[in-house]
Design brief:
CBS domain Like; Hsp33 domain; about 300 residues; alpha+beta; globular; 10 helices
């Protein structure tokens, strides 16, 4: 029985595990992420890419909590955020100045849209645990270039990343899925099964050239299953796949979290936000709106904040 073809992570190995990778297919996830927003096309594309990169990076980690990938810059898009829970739930958002977006085609999205800044990887496993964070400057034309640079410079792990996010064709139903795929291939160090030497250097160079030959159209082609996509460049290699992992769009906002957050505000500020005795709060990720009465908020006591509507 054929397996699923979307909303999944498919881990794979080449060269008996010396090279390891993950493939993320997430067309429905990307569609659900950008759907509640009226993003300009270039912004929606960047949200799709950061969601895909968040998925493919989180899937290479062992954690219980939330992995966050966040790009911040001084360009028209000043923030891109994607977070992935250890259960596979993902969400993403962009913060941008629409009037500053380029009017023509964008060929180098990092310098043209994000400008100067950094890309941060964060793993938060909850209270009483130490947060892990890695940071790399925004250098390169694409977000995938920044990710590769991080692994090669900070982790000394040769890495190739391919990402393609394409919206549905014009005339498609409003809820149509995107074409959205990311692949990452890494050369493992000797302590975890890697191999050194000129022969392995050549083998790595060949594997990266083969993977790099994949076009964006091939990556998002719905007629190619994830396994077919791996076999296309590596048909002469021994490709071993592990069981796929499902992923899905979802938001961690809730009425209780909003109440806890507003309860930390001075009452005068809450009253200034209220209209006819009610305060409306909209989640910037999923656009869910919570209407809260001042009486509800008065029933809470001030204390440490939980998570607010812009929880990142």
């Amino acid at each position: 029985m054929p397996g699923p073809t979307d909303n999944l992570i498919l881990p794979f190995h080449l060269a008996s595990g010396v090279f390891r990778g993950r493939l993320a297919r997430a067309g429905r996830v990307v569609a659900d992420t950008v759907g509640p927003h009226d993003y300009p096309p270039v912004v929606a594309q960047m949200v799709g890419e950061v969601v895909l990169l968040g998925l493919v990076l989180a899937s290479g980690l062992k954690y219980e909590g939330v992995f966050t990938l966040q790009a911040r810059g001084d360009g028209p898009i000043h923030a891109l955020v994607a977070d992935v829970t250890s259960a596979g739930m993902v969400r993403g958002v962009a913060r941008f100045r629409e009037e500053a977006l380029p009017k023509g085609p964008v060929t180098r999205p990092v310098p043209e849209l994000l400008g100067r800044g950094h890309l941060a990887f964060t793993v938060d496993q909850g209270p009483n645990t130490e947060r892990y964070q890695g940071i790399v400057s925004l250098e390169g034309d694409h977000l995938s270039d920044c990710v590769q640079r991080y692994f090669e410079q900070s982790e000394q792990l040769p890495t190739l990343v391919k990402v393609a996010a394409m919206p549905p064709p014009q005339g498609s139903p409003a809820d149509a899925s995107w074409g959205a795929t990311a692949m990452v291939l890494q050369r493992m160090p000797p302590e975890v099964g890697g191999k050194d030497g000129e022969d392995w250097d050549e083998h790595w160079n060949t594997a990266t050239l083969l993977m790099d030959s994949l076009t964006a159209e091939e990556l998002v082609n719905p007629a190619l299953t994830p396994e077919d996509l791996l076999r296309r460049p590596f048909h002469q290699e021994e490709v071993r796949v592990s069981p796929y992992r499902p992923v899905f769009f979802g938001c961690r906002c809730s009425r209780a979290k909003v109440i806890r957050t507003l309860a930390t505000f001075p009452r005068e500020e809450v009253l200034e936000l209220s209209k006819d005795g009610s305060v409306e709060v909209t989640c910037e990720f999923c656009k869910a709106t919570y209407a809260l009465t001042v009486e509800e908020l008065d029933g809470q006591t001030n204390g440490p904040s939980g998570s607010d509507k812009t929880e990142t």
